[in-house]
Write a structure and sequence with these properties.
The complex is a heterodimer of chains A (268) and B (575). Chain A is built from 3 helices and 22 strands. With 268 residues, chain A is mainly β. In chain B, helix 12 crosses helix 13.
């Protein structure tokens, strides 16, 4: 394994589009070559070296490459996007599209992330110690094919539109979420350990949602069908089981209509 | 001015308009036009060992206007089909950002056509009411010359006049509308069917009644064909027939084509056809449903081969995720019912409608594979390549940027077989089509007929585009292909047509080594048909704008500033 360390030396005047900050792009390159990889600041083509001090050479392949960014990346977009293997650690905050379209490997951010974290992700793991803004693990605007696989864990809270059009994978928000959880989803699992304002599972076709706190405004399209014991993130608890969204189309499997499931933690 | 002189030296010239097939020669250009010779101070472009052709002419493509924009608004995700985030963009100073794939921005549209050596593109369907928007987008599309065909097949005036058999009044209305919208000719989309869509109905046979208007698709097609020849317009009627995209429609297609037997061409532009049948791939389907769906290419092309009064373009499927858009409103609704994706539907008062639906041509789906085969078979069955043109009905069957791939398939049996081999349902596709048994490989001369001289003549623009004779516009493409030693690898053919080694447009080098080096000087081409004053039509128009339209006549007309670089084709119509 080889470690490449990036240290921010300049805050971009606009926003640096760091789509080259991935183990895949770094693989097989020396620190000097990595510093020469391109990015955009607005319409101007810049390099990683314009904004970071690069030390350490990358491994032969993406899987052999670990990237550590020591410092704040609140104005660096697309970190780890489309990566297939290896790891990225950000000791600080990160901007939009962190881990977007990623297929494998691991990303760890010690601070907060902006919107579109893990957008249309297909595999791998994202772990955020802080909060995430909106559109965690969602589909790109206009697209009807969302997150397909992998795991996103936000240790803090998240904003709106979590897992839009989700097809697979798992999103865990350890604190609270705002509105629009798994809208239009057709698979996958979303776990919210805190409270949610509302619009949970709107137009959801298939998939599972767990809410361990409270939902302030319940969707009218969900119906309670029973009480079940479920193990969620290693802890077994009792949930009220709802199905929905009853206003949306639903597929049939073995003669049974398949609904989306909402498991809301039962009152003690 | 020596700098206005150019000479393209020593290439293999392929110019079907003058029956030149691979002769080594020079092409001289002065002041934007092709000339016999230039002075010794002319700028020299070395084309030795390369093929030299005229600029390409696209007879049918949806590149500007409200329905293209509806597609852009509806599909922000389309841009990712073009490559990685912020990838493949012309970032050089002075050039505009490019974005989009099946519905590219106007800048990308102009640049990509130029890189493929195209000099003229016909916007295939302009809603007259929204013509100002079409012209705004045309003006913002760099380099390429463009024209637009207003749609007439469901227009209230046209249907009212034609049910009474009033060809002269129809012609006078058409002449007025072409002038008002700076249009080029007569486009017909699903005649009667789009008007019927206003009642939730459709017309899928030639004698289906159009509700309220008491006319039929047969009357509309025949009447507009007669009006077109009465006016003597450069182009013939340009028709998207009824019942597009449904199994078993090939018989209706042939019946509609036979209507061309009733009318003789009459014009001063060298055009010989009276009907251009567009994206005929979508109209050449056999079978009773999607299960027994099969190719009707042979039957349709057998008729087209016999009737010289017809030209066709292919509408080839290219296996891309694309965005369908057409003035055939009921068809888009039908398509949405098949794939359950997003749907936009628009009505344009008194004139037409439109629909937009994304579509994925998946090589693992048998129907898509058969559609792909039909598009290519039509060309391979054609006997007269100067009446058969390469299109993808951009973006309906695939983006125009795939023309080089279509050309590769047409020129190489090996490439076709490689694609066939990639299909999951290869055997079923072979059973339902003819393509596996066709060995024909088209030549560069035939490709030049299908993309240059043929479409230019069909549009009545043979004096300006599609050839290299002195006096014609100085639009010349140099391809990195050796005529005497064509590559064994078909991918190299695709690559050569995708990125011109050099492209000269209006006498100026706009592309070099496949990259744009100038924003060029584009022109908007439109037709001014001068008819004797017709008091009745004038009164009918004035009355309709008082009674029916939501806009005033004065706001309807496309102002000159919207087409600041016009190339006007004048047509004198004798009373």
């Amino acid at each position: 394994m080889a470690t490449v360390t990036l240290k921010p030396i300049k805050t971009p005047e606009l926003i640096f589009e760091g789509y080259s900050i991935t183990p895949d792009a770094f693989a097989g390159k020396t620190a000097q070559q990595i510093a020469g990889l391109t990015g955009h600041e607005g319409k101007i083509v810049t390099t990683i070296g314009d904004f970071f001090e690069v030390s350490g050479n990358a491994g032969e392949t993406a899987a052999d490459t670990d990237i550590i960014i020591n410092g704040d990346c609140a104005r660096v977009k697309y970190i780890g996007s489309k990566m297939t293997a290896g790891s990225v650690t950000v000791n600080g905050n990160a901007d939009m599209y962190l881990g977007g379209w990623m297929k494998g490997g691991k990303i760890y951010v010690t601070g907060n992330v902006d919107s579109f974290c893990g957008i249309q992700m297909q595999g791998g793991e994202i772990l955020i110690d802080g909060d995430a803004k909106n559109h965690v693990g969602c589909a790109y605007r206009g697209d009807w094919r969302g997150m397909k696989g992998g795991t996103i864990r936000i240790r803090g809270s998240a904003g709106n539109d979590i897992g839009t059009f989700m097809l697979g994978g798992t999103i865990i928000i350890e604190k609270n979420a705002f509105i629009h959880v798994a809208p239009h989803a057709e698979g996958g699992t979303v776990i919210i350990k805190g409270d949610v304002e509302g619009r949970v599972g709107g137009q959801m076709v298939k998939g599972d949602m767990y809410v361990l706190g409270k939902i302030k405004f319940m969707m009218p399209g969900y119906q309670k069908v029973g009480t079940v014991e479920k193990e969620v993130d290693g802890v077994t608890q009792t949930f009220d089981h709802y199905i929905g969204d009853l206003g949306e189309r639903h597929p049939k499997s073995k003669g049974q209509i398949v609904y989306a499931n909402l498991y809301l933690k039962a009152a003690a | 001015m020596a700098s206005r002189e150019l000479i393209i030296k020593g290439g293999f010239v392929v110019d079907p308009a003058r029956k030149i097939d691979g002769d080594v020669g020079d092409v001289a250009i002065k002041d934007g036009k092709i000339v016999e010779k230039v002075s010794s101070s002319a700028k020299v472009i070395d084309a030795k060992g390369k093929v030299v052709m005229a600029g390409g002419v696209d007879v049918h493509s949806h590149v500007a206007g409200p329905k293209v924009n509806a597609g852009r608004l509806m599909r922000p995700e389309d841009k990712f089909r073009a490559g990685i985030v912020r990838g493949n963009m012309a970032q050089k100073n002075g050039y505009r950002m490019e974005s989009g794939f099946s519905i590219p921005t106007v800048f990308k549209t102009g640049y990509e056509y130029a890189r493929m050596g195209y000099s003229f593109v016909m916007e295939a369907a302009m809603p007259p009411l929204l013509a100002p928007h079409v012209h705004e987008e045309i003006h913002d599309t760099p380099i390429i010359d463009e024209a637009a065909l207003p749609v007439f097949g469901n227009n209230w005036f046209v249907m009212d006049y034609l049910k009474k058999g009033e060809v002269e009044n129809t012609a006078a209305y058409i002449a007025w509308l072409l002038r008002a919208t700076k249009g080029f000719g007569i486009k017909i989309v699903n005649p009667g069917g789009t008007a019927a869509w206003g009642w939730g109905l459709n017309c899928i046979a030639l004698d289906d009644p159009v509700p309220y208007f008491e006319t039929t698709p047969r009357q509309i097609i025949t009447g507009l064909m007669k009006a077109n020849e009465y006016l003597g317009l450069p182009h013939s009627i340009h028709i998207h027939q009824n019942d597009l995209g449904n199994p078993g429609n090939y018989q209706l297609t042939i019946d509609s084509l036979k209507l061309a037997e009733q009318v003789k061409p009459k014009n001063k532009f060298g055009r010989e056809q009276v009907m251009h049948s567009t994206h005929i791939q979508f109209h050449s389907y056999k079978g009773t449903g999607w299960a027994d769906f099969e190719s009707g290419a042979k039957e349709v092309m057998d008729y087209v081969n016999r009737n010289k009064a017809i030209t066709v373009d292919l509408g080839c499927v290219t296996f891309d995720e694309t965005t369908t858009m057409t003035a055939d409103g009921p068809f888009e609704h039908h398509l949405r019912g098949l794939n359950h994706l997003k749907w936009a539907n628009v009505d344009v008062e008194l004139e037409t409608a439109a629909g937009v639906v994304p579509y994925i041509y998946d090589p693992n789906v048998k129907v898509c594979d058969i559609q792909w085969a039909i598009g290519l078979e039509l060309a391979l069955f054609a006997q007269d390549m100067s009446r058969t043109f390469v299109t993808t009905d951009h973006p309906n069957a695939g983006p125009f940027t795939r023309y080089p791939r279509v050309i590769k398939w047409l020129m190489s049996k090996k490439a076709r077989e490689a694609t066939l081999d990639s299909f999951r349902h290869k055997d079923k596709v072979i059973d339902a089509t003819h393509i596996h048994g066709i060995d024909r490989e088209l030549t560069l001369f035939e490709i030049a007929q299908m993309t240059r001289s043929g479409p230019a003549k069909c549009l009545g623009l043979g004096a300006y585009y599609g050839g290299l004779a002195p006096g014609m516009l100085g639009d010349v493409m140099v391809l990195d292909l050796n005529y005497k030693d064509m590559p064994k690898d078909p991918e190299k053919i695709e690559a050569a047509f995708q990125r011109a080694a050099c492209f000269v447009k209006s006498g100026e080098i706009v592309v070099r080594d496949g990259e744009v080096v100038s924003n060029g000087h584009k022109k908007t081409v439109w037709v001014n048909a001068k008819v004797p004053e017709n008091a009745q039509v004038k009164r009918d128009i004035a009355q309709s704008f008082t009674k029916d339209y939501t806009v005033d006549l004065i706001n309807y007309v496309v102002r000159d500033y919207l087409a600041p670089h016009p190339m006007v084709i004048d047509v004198e119509v004798e009373a």
